[in-house]
Amino acid sequence: MTGKPRPGRASAAQSSDDESLVVDTADTSEDGDRARRGLPGVLLAAAVATVLLIVAAVQPVVRGAEPAFGSGGWLIALAVLPLAIALLFAASGKPVVARGVIIGAAALVPGRVLADLQFLDDASVVSRPELYLPDSLASPAAATGFWAMLAGHALWLVAGVLAIRRGDTEGGADSIDGFGGPGVDGAGSDAPGSEAPAVSGSGVVAPEGAAGARLNANQRGFMWVLLIAALAAIGLLMAPFSSADPYLLALPVVESAAFTLAGGVLLALSVPLAAGLAVSAASRGTTRGVLLGVAIGLGTLQLPPLIAGLTVADLGPKPGPFLVLAAALAFVLVALSAAGRDRPLVSGDVGARRPVDRDPRLPGESTLHRITGVLAVLAGASAIVAGYTAHVLASSSPGFGPAGLSVTPTETVDSYTKLMLLPAGAVVALLGVLVAVGGGFGVAVRPALSVAWVGIPLVGAGALDTAVAATELGTARAGAGVFWTCAAMFLAAVVGVACAVAGSVEREEDGTDRAGPASVALLAALFAGGLLAFGAFGVPAMRADDYLGADLLGNFRISSVGLFAGLLAVLLAIVLASRSRPARGAALLVGAASLPALRLLELPLTGERATGAAPGPGMWLSLACAGVLLLAAILGWASRRAGVR
């Protein structure tokens, strides 16, 4: 090869077997510039969020509030930590890792915001000794620190969204792989017509299929990461400390007040979702960054209650924070270990380095389908057990309640909403069995399962809503059914991650999953289904005397979180189906139709809880939505048969 190589590009040589060899890369390359594009805006949003969280650390969150210990310095350090780590990677020339840290930290923000809203609803039941030590049963009003904390979390979420969107739109070296475009450890690609080879961040020419090798390496550790995430989720649901203070409650999440419960469950679900998506990314930089960001987020959540339990009088440590911090440390070790790194390199005959395996093989689909199917069966079985297990235990003693007084329960209070878990669990378990069969049939059914799993949190939120409402009366406590419901919701979220990984493997092996433009009839059906979904999940499906069902507007409760999840799942399935090949698009729509179909069962299964129960507008809209989605699935399948798409 003659001629001088372009500045910032690797010099390439040809060996006798035509292997591509690389000498070096430069930070000033075109790919390096593209990798940093947009990162200052992301870091600026994170910096403003950090400043607001520092303000929240030094200002009272409620009027007249005093922390239980000198937590200001700890809170400031924890607020600065994720930004400092992101800046460190950015300054070290690793912008993809820096963005991953922002994304990982932002993944836990929605749950934190939801839990923080308990300060507005009833601050007297908030267990946050690092911010507020209650000294009475009164609920003080929110102060400057609370609003600064809320704004800081909101800006962190904005920073995370910007990090994903920038990586998704800029491509090349800047792609957040697994969240955006394809790439290899931050490797970019040349402009059209360029003769220079694509170069990986390690200075090695990226051979065809290198992204697949990265995906293969990540998936080998997929189950380990999910086990770590499960450990963190269990710890997040446990009591943060023990308390002998009559005004400072120390309850597990399932026995906490409404917003604390909703936020805690969302946090427990967010950890496996974020970790699973991170480890399924094709870029090592993305995996490292997101896992580090999640680990930092877990540390900022659990260090303050652990310190409070160890240092504050009348408080004591509990296992929950230790489990979460152990999981956070494990995430850090995984992120910094050799697992999932670039493939090992050996010396070539001419003294340069080349990849050992030029044709990496992706893991078999059948193995991933079996894992996904087994997880779905476990999630469905847990939901069915929850449907048959007591959710609320009552006592004849008026003092029995969520404060944990030692009174023996004497009566099981029936919860009609728990019955909705039976059909939801049966659907997920059945689809899990079909996916576990593997082969072409498992591939065909897997897209339906990737949407249908949302049915468990959809109805599980309603079951938890009933349990919380009963315990707030002060004469009941949560039964074992609440535990099984939370377990089913957690396993369902893991199923969603496993489906996403299996889908990414299918696309790697089969090529792109996109099809040509959809027919006008199919687009019309999809549009109608999306509009009907807003009504199906937005208004109550049952009406009765002295009964007001949960919705997304006028009566937002814990059940509404499940309704919102169902609406998002249906809308996302519609968007993906319009861009997918007909067979997979049809399966997606069948899975989406199962969600409004669950709403149709609310009246026959739970109607006895209210006098004069009758179908509400949500039931008729759910019927129409499910019917239109099934019609769209048929139209999509027919286009496959006719060869339209």
Shape: globular
Distance between the termini: 45 Å
In total, how many beta strands? Answer: 11
**Which consecutive residue ranges, at least 5 long each, have pLDDT under 50?**
1-32, 168-219, 338-363, 396-412
Class derived from helix and strand content: mainly alpha
Transmembrane segments: 42-62, 68-89, 96-115, 141-164, 222-241, 261-282, 289-308, 320-339, 371-390, 420-444, 451-470, 482-505, 517-538, 558-578, 585-606, 618-638
Keywords: Membrane, Transmembrane, Transmembrane helix
Region (Disordered): 1-34
Please give a quick description of this structure.
The chain has 645 residues and is mainly alpha-helical. It has 22 helices and eleven strands.
Word description of this protein:
The protein has 645 residues and is mainly alpha-helical. Helices cover 60% and strands 5% of the residues. The protein is built from 22 helices and eleven strands. The chain has helices at 30-36, 39-58, 72-91, 95-106, 109-116, 118-122, 144-170, 210-220, 222-237, 258-279, 284-311, 319-336, 365-388, 421-437, 439-452, 455-471, 480-510, 520-538, 558-579, 582-600, 602-606, 617-642; strands at 12-14, 20-22, 241-243, 315-317, 345-347, 353-355, 392-394, 411-413, 476-478, 542-543, 614-615. The strands form five sheets. It has a three-stranded antiparallel sheet. Strands 1-2 form a two-stranded antiparallel sheet. A two-stranded antiparallel ribbon has the order 3-4. A hairpin with a 5-residue loop joins β5 (345-347) and β6 (353-355). The protein is globular and about 65 Å long. Residues 1-32, 168-219, 338-363 and 396-412 have low confidence and may be disordered.
